[in-house]
């Protein structure tokens, strides 16, 4: 369950894009982008509401169909970083 201090912004799904209904969402969703209400910073949470990447991102863009599911850009930096999602450990790892 999501914490009260989070605003769920957009769900990121497994690399096979998902067009199903809400009933199937939790079976196929890996993690989601959320905004911390106190700091107004963005991060990525798992379905239990735990931070996979702590709130700090100003830019996140999904990538479909390959190993790199996410690109992230740290505040004040022009370089983007690629992350992969480990389904068993339910974590994102910086490449």
From TrEMBL:
Q: What is this protein called?
A: Uncharacterized protein
Origin: domain of life: Bacteria
């Amino acid at each position: 369950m999501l914490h009260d201090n989070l605003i769920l912004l957009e769900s990121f799904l497994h690399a096979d894009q998902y067009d199903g209904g809400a009933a199937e969402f939790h079976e196929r969703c890996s993690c989601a982008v959320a905004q911390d209400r106190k700091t107004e910073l963005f991060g990525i949470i798992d379905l239990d509401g735990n931070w996979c990447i702590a709130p700090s991102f100003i830019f996140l863009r999904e990538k479909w169909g390959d190993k790199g599911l996410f690109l992230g850009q740290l505040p004040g930096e022009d370089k983007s970083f690629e992350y992969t999602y480990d389904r068993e450990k339910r974590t994102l790892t910086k490449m």
